[in-house]
Amino acid sequence: MTRIPVLVRGVGDVGSAVAHRLFSDGYAVVIQDSPEPPATRRKMAFADAVFDGVARLDGVEARRAVDVDMVKALMGKTVAVFVGPFPDLLEAIKPDVLIDARMRKRMVPESQRGSAPLTIGLGPNFEAGVTCDVAIETSWDALGTMIRAGKPLPLAGEPRALGGHARDRYVYAPCDGVFRTRAEIGDRVDQGQPIATIGETVLVAPVAGVLRGLTHDGVPVSARTKVIEVDPRGRTAEVAGISERPRRIAAGVADAVRQFMGSDLAKGR
Questions:
Q1: Is 46 exposed, middle or buried (0-12, 13-18, 19+ CB in 10 A)?
Q2: Is the pTM value of this prediction over 0.90?
Q3: 98-139 pLDDT per residue, tens
Q4: Pairing of strands 118-122, 201-204
């Protein structure tokens, strides 16, 4: 049976969890992102396939594809990760399902309806029936809920606390520049310890704990981009694998795909 093609935009932890779930469910999945994604939770995602050529996440492998021909060769065998132009990829693979998992919280997404038989938008600012066919809630209040008409909840509140720390666990780029670091995800750090630089600006650990998120060395970042995350829980810190929130969002996406594509996907094309 031919695997149904699915295109996921965004190689961060949410997009990767969606890709992982749908590939495991039998779809031919491709992830598209920029050549230098600023993703931080790289051990919870397929992001390092962009830099290293291959990455594994909870038993599923992803490989970087250098062109659309390689994408087609990889589809169905592994998760393909493509960092070329989105329009070229869309035209080449003609996906049955297009999922925008870029999680651009403060940006109004362009309309993607009509780009595939089923288009799904994740998180704030999408509107089911207007910019996408279906939206998926990414707020903890209704996490993973499928929305057939209307918008997900607006961005509000603080991140969920870990070990008593919420937003203060994160470091955001204070300016545009190239992110430089010798640290690694999983490293133990002390509060105030230098972790990275952007130009002449030194970025330090905001709290003591374990590095959970860290943008890859050498990636250009924009001001206010999240670049460092510390898990203050020490030995129980979670730094690798699919975590609860992305997993539940991915489950909502999988339900939407099953419900809206139904028998056509089950039969294959």
A1: buried
A2: yes
A3: 999 999 877 778 888 999 999 999 988 899 999 999 999 999
A4: unpaired
